Backbone:
């Protein structure tokens, strides 16, 4: 999508409270945990379970997922490649703001195109952690918690990732979770261990 800049005469105000100040106050780093993977691979389930653990440990945390974004901020967007790109661009911008607010924000979107994820990475900088929720399409289709694969197979949903639209798997994800072999708790444990290793979490 060609970037259109419509507003001019905009000044970026000097910050009176910086990300570093907020992180020091929170006792943990800000980060964007960018979960990507096929529909029903487990992105939302893992992100929600993770946020419960983080919250219990006193972390400032939030999950951006399909419901709270596609029903609101992005309700004008569909599933064409252009709209998917714009969907991910806006989510990247919002996630970057949450990180700047010192929070650990998880995003749970298929985000099928590598180039779009890379753009989000460049927006978010050092705190961007790409987490590939790997799960074979056959397993996802068997789980099918929302009946979407069934609808895609019968042609009711066009351009369905993994069936009739491509999914470009990450090549350099910071973390890959094997959601067909590890249960939700194990996946959450791996993310927590990674955050500790990176120094984002100090004592969770
Ligand atoms: P996504 O957000 O990727 O579309 P969901 O989290 O909505 O996927 O759905 C994944 C489904 O798979 C849920 O019904 C969940 O209970 C189930 N599931 C089974 N094993 C796992 C696992 N290891 N990790 C995540 N979800 C799992």
Residues:
């Amino acid at each position: 999508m060609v970037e259109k800049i419509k507003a001019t005469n905009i000044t970026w105000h000097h910050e009176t409270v910086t990300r570093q100040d907020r992180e020091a106050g929170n006792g943990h780093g800000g980060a964007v945990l960018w979960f990507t993977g096929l529909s029903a691979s487990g992105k939302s389930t893992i992100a929600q379970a993770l946020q419960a653990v983080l919250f219990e440990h006193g972390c400032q945390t939030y999950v951006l997922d399909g419901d709270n974004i596609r029903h609101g901020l992005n309700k004008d967007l569909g599933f064409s490649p252009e709209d998917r790109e714009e969907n991910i661009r806006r989510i990247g911008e919002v996630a970057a703001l949450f990180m700047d607010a010192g929070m650990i924000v998880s995003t749970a979107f298929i985000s099928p195109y590598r180039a779009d994820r890379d753009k989000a990475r460049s927006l978010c900088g050092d705190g961007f952690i790409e987490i590939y929720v790997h799960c074979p399409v056959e397993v996802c289709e068997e789980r099918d918690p929302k009946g979407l694969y069934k609808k895609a197979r019968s042609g009711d949903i066009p351009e369905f990732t993994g069936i009739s639209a491509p999914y470009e798997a990450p090549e350099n994800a910071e973390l890959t979770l094997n959601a067909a072999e590890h249960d939700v708790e194990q996946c959450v444990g791996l993310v927590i261990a990674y955050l500790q290793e990176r120094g984002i979490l100090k004592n969770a």
The CA atoms of residues 137 and 162 lie 7 Å apart. The pocket of adenosine-5'-diphosphate is lined by residues 37, 39-46, 108, 143, 145, 179, 182-184, 187 (CB under 6 Å).
